[in-house]
Design brief:
The structure is a homotetramer. Chain A is an alpha/beta fold. Helices cover about 35% and strands about 20% of the residues of chain A. In chain A, a hairpin with a 4-residue loop joins strand 14 and strand 15. Chains A, B, C, D: Catalyzes the conversion of ornithine to proline, with the release of ammonia.
């Protein structure tokens, strides 16, 4: 029998931390004794618990401690983080530490360093006295890599004392919720966030073009609601096709019907943009006259188009090496406070893995399985909306404009 | 080897009748010889074809002829329909004729009678010199029932020479179509139909209430766009719950959250309506102050609420015997020209089976499998829209009002 | 400010009872003080908590207490249940108590009576000194109906100390789980349950016939795994159609293709069964020779076929009044220990509402939204499997037979 | 008014070619006159039609001719294909020809050359006297590119006179078909194809690992049913994780539960494979002991792993540049006769675009929308199966083994 003391501190009960911990111990067939437990008597008080965790043997105990670690357990005595050098480029030492998407600290030379660029399923290295989160393939020979869980502290987001409507909508995934009201609440949240200097990214798939949501998204970019666009070749191609030919994958959006010869439009579009030297130059040359990419270029909103094997062309701005694209996405997502994911599972999951759990995310898809999958991937502050982006985005844009008008009127009075 | 001559007449090629016929013969491993074929040289001309169909034996030939019959084949010599009396109530003679949902005629005593109340999967009886379509359980002992296919003519709808946008949208089921534009086209169709004295029925499920589409549907009823409502207990209960308690299944639609104690609201609602003596009386008594049922009562729009085993209560107006409900639905659907099916598979399929193929139908559901299933059930003039009714209905109502305004302005000038 | 003391007892922390309670108070913007808290130090110990709950006013406090009540809060002093007579048939007194699906007790004349036939969203009456759960429309004038929450105790199922594989699978709904292994675990659970004298009900839709699962389900009935079948007209019709014509809705299952004339088969089937006097008589007369209904009749397994407005015919055994059907279903479900729900949302939800939370349920559907909806409706011991019943049922039957063989072999050694 | 004569030849009516042509002309509001029409009187005869097609003006006429071209229309006089040089790398001449996925011929210097490597949405160049199909980004400055539609002939696959079960299953997408029987038919088709020296590719996503289908797929590779594997990083990672740790994304497949610490397994797996120098070396070093990748390496079955932005790691064999990956896929797909697509929309659509319409494809996914989307993308010989790969693949493998056994027994007799 092996045992170890662990501590928890915070809103242990209503943030479900202690229940989850005891739950986990029982699940793993471990034992526990509660050595000390001071409960915050009122809701603003913190609680404190000290547990003795018992495993059948050291290995069993370690398994239990691993799970407790990921929900915020501290080992009472502050231990120094353990580091081992990477034996070669991209090769990691045994037992390397795998990150969560929660804010994380390492106790390095007696100081708690916050890990920079935290995201799911990555590794931590100490470089120049800083703790940095790295993709596996960024590790260089000799990098000092965190191994084991000693000296690593994870701080899962607590349930806020004062909750907003926004947070309450989280959790369940269903198409049977009041869509217009959800849009109202999301619009409110975006406006509040923008007023406080927050930054919003949109991750979007080509259904934006096909379902007729493109003009509204372009409007949101023009009006300054969006600070970053993450997407792929298809969204950009069909957006530009709409500008040049008035069709999306050859379909006339006013009738929902393919136009004769329309099947050629997306390749003709790509060819024109390549000939012009890229999207930016095609906007400057007046070839692209409106739409999402146009507004990004005109308003200096950065965009990243990541390649996929489905791509035709692709457009010159598309980053065809997915690892290069991923790094560019991570870079661009620094300092983003909210991400709106629109009808794309591939890009949404990729972005989800790059985000810390403190970033608000809104996932919109007509397929409930997609929304569920995105919500399951550990983004704590996520809201899922099962609806049609073809109606959602225009309605959201209307609501944003309406709310801005109201506020202006109030201020003018 | 057995053979028989059959004829086809109409727009044989572009309405796919002849291709389907030859296709069917080949599928069934029959043989054919084209005895005569006069093709309409221009698009407004009819075509005529006379085929010799050959089967391995009489049974094989009959199978082939059965399929050809259902797509409109005529046996050249006009044969008298064959009738046999029903041996007992609900019991049918051998080889009874099973209807399609296409306009159907029987050659009775030398005259072609159109079958009244045609719908899918029913039987035909001659009663008082009229050909009537009956449910199986409506058959009475001694009823003269059509058997075999002799003397029965089916007239599948032809592809119209001049097509509208509405018809073009049919066919494919996909969430990747321009939703706002589809709504525009549907609104146009409704307005045209209403102007020409057409009648519109709505078939709706409780998602109308939960997704926040209820006020818009109530508005459409108030403004005279809807002539009949077919639904069940749940839609009515939650609609009235919204009027009395402001919640739908205990959820506050302004926040998307359950209210404490809200789980009781739908039972309290039912109890109040029962105590008042039913929906009509509860409206008159001022207990129900707004919503779908309120507008139906106030505007004398008939509604039929058919029971299901999921029902709580149910409300007094709910018809708990499903066969009684079905007959009431069939009755109410006479002279309806368009049916809008909103987020209910059960009711939509039931209604689909009661409609002739000449009635326009619009099926809206967020689940593409539901829309596909409805479209597969043989309603030729059907459009499927994969979208969220919570946004679709309010948008459709807005569009209807906008178009009416536009037309009024044009007329006033 | 109004305040009240409440108590909780049990495995408060790892069964999430106390966390849920504090969570609820905070959600509703109430206040609390923890007056006493004795935590079980080891996992087999019970815990005890006494809280002072504070609301803004009496109404606010009552809302909070209502939510706490439904998760098991006790008012320390044992209060007598409050009863009021029903003013008329089906009419309830104000503020009547609405049931959960958890085991429930009422303090009547100083004794705690367990409510009989507990199910979701019903009412409680005292009849002949017993507490019984009634549908709203079963209430008779003068029935003593429980009002308010005083003297009513709800006992939500606790998380078992020793968990089985079966319980662990609950919760998440995803198509990305190991289907064969889930089937293995479910088979094990069924066998254990049957060995201990447990009783299993199946709720099934017509996809059982269309997807080719019918023979396997018939086999499970023949071999004694199933004690009750709840379904509708369609499943029975196509099952019998398969016996008489070898088709399901006219489709030849060996080829997946419609057979010519097959569209008539289901009506011909219904007609034959009506002529024979019903399913039982048709089995006895040798008209039905195999399949699900055949095995039910031959093995004296009760079945209930509830009507719906989609039904053709219907077959004589179908109960066309849905309220009569619902009562028959409730009756039949007494003493059932497990329910397997196969590809039918309508019947599954109806059955779910009739079951106490202590009955194990397995929901199988290819549509994840259906499974999620079933899991959301409060059936605590539910497992959802997103898969194809056409493969699931045959595989489950194989697994059951295999496990029985293994056990026999072990016993024979 | 502009007019042009076009010809059609083949099984014009039952292969729907003429109906589609007339349909298209009417859709586009063109006019036609049938100048000559000789119908094959028996099913083995070819038909011939000569039409005068009339448009409002030359542009309108060209639109109509474009659509007719893609369904096989010939301009009577054999015209020489028109070629223009590419002005720069990746830049195409105006009005360049966009390919279908049907076998295509160009009339170059009086000879009809078949276009090599035909696939959807590409361009045709003449290089070294051969007509080759190129991705847009493969075009080099000076390449002679086909422009317009003159001298280009498309030959859509005809409906075979003698149809197999396999072909009949095509078309509809529904979860309500007999899954076991579909598997039987697919197994038969695979065995026939392999006996005739055919080659089968599998395109698969990571659900193969999570749903427990992996061992069966590995078995199919080992037994020689599969000649090529196209997939991504995730399938390979979790397959190898199963070999090393017995988990898939940290889930123990025997219980469907995550194992403690399992979240690290996939990164540990990737790290081990990188350290070993790749998948092949890890197999040789005995690190990977079984599974899909193991069988590919041991049996010299080529595999291509294409990168995506979701990838962790990735494994060394993953091609991170999507355009390089796409070319490798096209190369590998030469001489493939059947493609089985298992639970991956991204890879399946990418592969679909690379395949000529003559290759048989089987698309299996639990989401009907995915299957519909794949079927809509123009792969004529496609079968869609809406089912769970976790049961489908093991059952298919069993069926293949059973059929081989039967055949061996027959031959041994």
């Amino acid at each position: 029998m092996n045992a170890r003391e662990v501590e928890f501190e915070g809103h242990l009960i209503d943030s479900m931390i202690l229940p989850k911990a005891l739950d986990a111990i029982l699940d793993l067939e471990g034992e526990f004794e509660i050595l000390e437990f001071r409960i915050g008597k009122k809701k603003e008080d913190h609680s404190y618990a000290r547990l003795l965790v018992v495993g059948r043997d050291e290995q069993h105990l370690q398994k239990i401690l691993h799970v407790l670690h990921r929900i915020g357990a501290k080992i009472p005595e502050a231990e120094e983080v353990e580091l081992k050098p990477a034996p070669a480029d991209k090769v990691l030492p045994e037992n390397f530490y795998v990150t969560t998407n929660h804010p994380t600290f390492v106790n390095y030379k007696g100081k708690w360093l916050q890990v920079e660029g935290i995201g799911m399923d990555k590794v931590i290295a100490i470089r120049n006295g800083k703790a940095v989160c790295l993709f596996l393939n960024e590790v260089k020979k000799g990098d000092l890599i965190v191994v084991g869980e000693k000296g690593v502290r994870v701080v899962p987001p607590e349930r806020p004392r004062k909750v907003s409507h926004f947070q309450f909508m989280g959790g369940s995934v269903s198409s049977e919720r009041p869509t217009e009201e959800l849009i109202e609440i999301i619009a409110e949240e975006i406006i509040n966030l923008k007023r406080n200097g927050g930054r919003v990214a949109v991750v979007a798939g080509p259904a934006i073009d096909h379902t007729g949501a493109r003009n509204a998204l372009a409007g949101m970019i023009r009006d300054g609601y969006i600070d970053l666009l993450l997407s792929g070749n298809a969204l950009a191609v069909h957006d530009i096709e709409l500008s040049i030919f008035g069709t999306s994958l050859g379909m006339d959006l006013r009738t929902g019907r393919p136009v004769p010869g329309g099947n050629r439009h997306h390749l003709y579009t790509i060819s024109k943009v390549i000939a012009a030297g890229g999207i930016r130059k095609a906007v400057e040359a007046g070839i692209i006259k409106d739409g999402i990419m146009y507004e990004c270029v005109k308003n200096n909103i950065p965009f990243i188009l990541a390649g996929s094997i489905r791509d035709d062309g692709p457009l010159p701005e598309v980053i065809t090496d997915v690892m290069v694209a991923k790094k560019a996405m991570r870079e661009a997502l620094q300092n983003i406070d909210m991400v709106i994911m629109l009808a794309t599972m591939l890009h949404s999951i990729a972005v989800g893995n790059l985000l810390p759990s403190t970033v608000k995310t809104i996932c919109v898809d007509i397929n409930p399985a997609t929304v569920t999958k995105l919500m399951d991937r550990g983004t704590a502050q996520a809201i899922g909306v099962v609806t049609d982006v073809g109606l959602f985005v225009p309605q959201l844009y209307e609501k944003l404009k309406e709310k801005e008008r109201e506020k202006r009127e109030i201020m003018e009075e």
